[in-house]
Fold this sequence. Notes:
The complex is a heterodimer.
Chain A: H1 2-16, H2 25-40, H3 45-53, E1 60-77, E2 82-98, E3 103-109, H4 113-126, H5 132-160
Antiparallel strand pairs in A: 1-2, 2-3
Chain B: H1 13-29, E1 35-36, H2 49-58, E2 65-67, H3 69-73, H4 76-83, E3 97-100, E4 125-129, E5 132-142, E6 150-155, H5 161-164, H6 167-171, E7 177-182, E8 185-189, E9 194-195
Amino acid sequence: MARRYQVVYYHRQLELGKIEVDVNGETARQGWRKAAMRVLAHAPTAEIGSRLDQIELPAHVQLREPENGLVMVRGRVGGDGAPFNLGEATVSRAAVRLASGEVGFGYALGRDREKARLIALCDALIQTEAHADLVETQVIAPLRKAMAASRAQAAAEAAATRVDFYTMVRGEG
Amino acid sequence: MSVIELSAGFSDKVLSAQSTFRSVMEAIARPGSLHRVTTGIGAVPGLMPATAAIALTLFDHDTPVWLDPQLAASGVAEWLKFHTGAPVATESADASFALVTAGASLPALENFALGSSEYPDRSTTVILQVESLGDGRACELRGPGIDGVTTLNATIAPDDLLERLAVNANLFPRGIDVVLVHDDTIVAIPRTTRLVGG
């Protein structure tokens, strides 16, 4: 249950940082990175990996080896939204630097270090002129599509079980 | 300095940190003897490989680090922050560790934290990069961890460092521990080590 809440919370945070494509190029790129992270954070590791494999990757070093750690998950409660510490969540993180200098950071819930590494790599690639479009079309877009489809399916399955309680209205008198 | 210029950390965090820790521990247990720190670590501007390895192994967010003016002006503080999370101490007396690359900028030893009688461990460990270890002026050392007398050949700046460390004799159990570094070699002079005839 707690884990489920964390995921929801995490997702909410990502949702709140909704993308604003600004006239300022830097902000647009930030938004692009944010949008990619939103997808990658929920995508299965194998999916990201197999899609990245199809791209010719530039040389890169691991600035920060993938590692596991804990972060405090904070929630809000009550009418005034007072913050409270919900508990700690396991997080994996990594940092990758491309030969051209771009640094990508990856954070993912759970102990999947490979996922954090792949996310960091994607983040770095998105910042380059040469690979940004390729990563967007080959990796992010298909994953986003798959995610939207599975969500739509879950919503449809839930909607199919909807019951209208109009017969439950009690006839008075 | 932006994050883009940062150097990488250990290639294998756990094993590298363990082996570096072991080297430092052996060095402190056997003062005056040479120990090698061999880890896969990229070049960090301003730091010798062993210094960088010690930093990644021993520093964390609970250990304020004092940098000599030369290092403070370089990007090392950023590198330390990214990889270790260690805060940089502006006063040498607040520091758990001091990184000194040039002997000339080593302040008077009394300016470092000396610990208290209740907590002698709360003193500064000085990590000093020197010109040469195994070559240079011969010093005879004695103390715990040394069978009789051992000879250390080293070119250290400041050249009267070992004499200055005599303050440790009166301070005990408080005092300063020093780790000398050259390239990938380290020698420790803990607070119990004395210069023979000094």
